[in-house]
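Whiteboard transcription, Tuesday session. T.W. wrote the C-alpha cells on the left side:
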C-alpha cells in the first residue's frame, strides 16, 4: 500500500455521539476545500433507512460490519474530512486503519457539557434507547479510553463550532509545514 502524504491524508473526527463531529467536520471540510463524509449518513444512504431502523431490523452487528467496510473504503481516499459514528472507533480494525492512513482528531467534551445535549440526541441514537442517565454515563466513561487513540485532542467545552474548526485547520496547516 502506498503511503499517503500527510497533506493529502483524510482527516477523521472521533468522539462520543453528539459531540459535534458532523457539524464541525462540515466546517473543517469547507475551510480546507475537501469533501465531507459522515459515515452514519453514508450507511443510511446505502441501506435507504436511518441507523436506528437498521439497528431494529438487522441488529447492531450488521450495522457495525457495514460501518467497518465503509470506513476502510473511505480511509484509502485522499483529501476527505470523515466523521465517524460514536461507536465506530470501538472496533480495533477501525482504530488501526484510521491511525495508519488518516489524521485523527478526538473531539472531547466533558460529561457535564454533553449532558446538556441529551434532549437533542436521545430519540435519534439507537445506543441510548431504554437507558437511564447512570447507564449513559457508564457508556460515556467506558468509551473515553478508546478515544485516546488519536493524533490530536480538541477540547470542545464552551467553544463555538467555528473556533473548533479553526483550531483543527490551524493545527493541520502547522503540521503540514513542519513535516513537509
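and on the right, the sequence the group agreed on:
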Amino acid at each position: 500500500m502506498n503511503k499517503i502524504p500527510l497533506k493529502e491524508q483524510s482527516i477523521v473526527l472521533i468522539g462520543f455521539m453528539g459531540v459535534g463531529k458532523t457539524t464541525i467536520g462540515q466546517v473543517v471540510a469547507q475551510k480546507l476545500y475537501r469533501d465531507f463524509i459522515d459515515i452514519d449518513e453514508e450507511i443510511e444512504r446505502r441501506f435507504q433507512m436511518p441507523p436506528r431502523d437498521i439497528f431494529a431490523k438487522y441488529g447492531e452487528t450488521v450495522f457495525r460490519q457495514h460501518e467497518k467496510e465503509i470506513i476502510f473504503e473511505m480511509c484509502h481516499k485522499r483529501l476527505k474530512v470523515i466523521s465517524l459514528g460514536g461507536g465506530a472507533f470501538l472496533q480495533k480494525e477501525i482504530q488501526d486503519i484510521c491511525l495508519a492512513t488518516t489524521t485523527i482528531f478526538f473531539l472531547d467534551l466533558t460529561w457535564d457539557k454533553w449532558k446538556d445535549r441529551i434532549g437533542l440526541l436521545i430519540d435519534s441514537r439507537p445506543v441510548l434507547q431504554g437507558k437511564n442517565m447512570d447507564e449513559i454515563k457508564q457508556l460515556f466513561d467506558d468509551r473515553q479510553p478508546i478515544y485516546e487513540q488519536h493524533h490530536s485532542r480538541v477540547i470542545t467545552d464552551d467553544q463555538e463550532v467555528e473556533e473548533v474548526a479553526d483550531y483543527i485547520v490551524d493545527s493541520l496547516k502547522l503540521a503540514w509545514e513542519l513535516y513537509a
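Someone added at the bottom: Residues 117 and 164 are 17 Å apart (CA to CA).
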